[in-house]
Amino acid sequence: MLQENSFMQGKQSIGLGTPVYIRQSASIVGKKEGQGPLGKLFDVIGEDDMFGGSCWEEAESTLQKEAVWLVLQKAGITIDEVRYLFAGDLLGQSIASSFGLSTYGTALFGLYGACSTSALSLCLGSICVAGGFADQVLCVTSSHFASAEKEFRFPLDYGNQRPLSASWTVTGSGAFLLAKKREKGTRAMITGLTPGRIVDFGIKDSMNMGACMAPAAADTIDRHLKDFGRTPEYYDKIITGDLGSVGQQALIDLLREKNTDISQLHTDCGIEIYDSGTQDTHAGGSGCGCAATVLSAYILKNLEEKIWKRVLFVPTGALLSKTSFNEGKSVPGIAHGVVLEAV
Description:
The chain has ten helices and 16 strands. The protein has helices spanning 31-34, 56-75, 95-101, 117-130, 145-152, 209-228, 244-256, 269-272, 288-304, 322-326; strands at residues 6-9, 13-29, 44-45, 84-88, 107-111, 136-143, 168-169, 172-179, 188-194, 237-240, 266-268, 285-286, 310-314, 316-318, 333-335, 337-341. The protein is globular, with a radius of gyration of 18 Å. The two termini are 26 Å apart. The mean pLDDT is 91.
């Protein structure tokens, strides 16, 4: 049973009267991400995007395996002290997670929320801990530029042109240890959740992920503020995961139609991770690893240092597959909100 001070809030949100703590986290990224403006903040930067694997999918599995190992080392615990893993990725049947994490032998909740998977895992992991079903859980996700291009678009050898609206799938993995108790070195706390709805504006351009996902982000942010009775200024920052420059403007415009202005508070992980002036990433970054690595390396750091006291973290996902796209279906979006506060 949920603790008495955890409660349903409004139409779809959850308040955690007793917070769930992000005890520790880890971030591993590829060479391109390491060359971006956040490069010095990531825990590990790979010199070879194969990460010792024989194929791109194996490389991505290694990312998750190493991210989990690193967060355990930083927390000073063993995997036996973690009750559950919450994990997912972009590949078919989540093979990056299944092959990457199988050696740990820990009970696994396999998740798919597309690029919103980091928030999806944090939502479900927090509910599990707040409900008293685990003292500690691990949330991990990943993406890889080459494996994602192969899965959703064209193999790299094809050399296809990318439109300016396209985003660059981040090569990276982020892992987070959630705990019931606050320990020394705890990075932040989770005090509220707003799981998102599927929102479909009928957009069929799979090379414009920002436009596809912005309506879902607007819906979740709007619902979150109404559920908790808050204004945007309650937060130091409202941070989406994967909208990039195109999706950011769409999000701001959609919320203004609802008489909500977040233009002075908003940033996006896909904008922060790359330098638009020197790195050829077009609209910015995306992928499961985008929000996860930026959360671990950048957002939690600002909360630890009390630069920000309270953040609404809203990763977004485009719910398409090769099959649905080739059958002419539109690209629905989803976004999940997580309230992060300084300890």
